[in-house]
Amino acid sequence: MLVEALHLFLVGEKLREAVFVMKNKEMAKALI
Length: 32
Fold this sequence. Notes:
By secondary structure, the chain is an all-alpha fold. It has one helix spanning 2-31. The mean pLDDT is 94.
């Protein structure tokens, strides 16, 4: 149970990080 919750949390963090990076790239394109 605990391990699965931790795994889901880590996956969620990775997804959030990926979305954050993509948004930053889009903003950079818009600024340049």
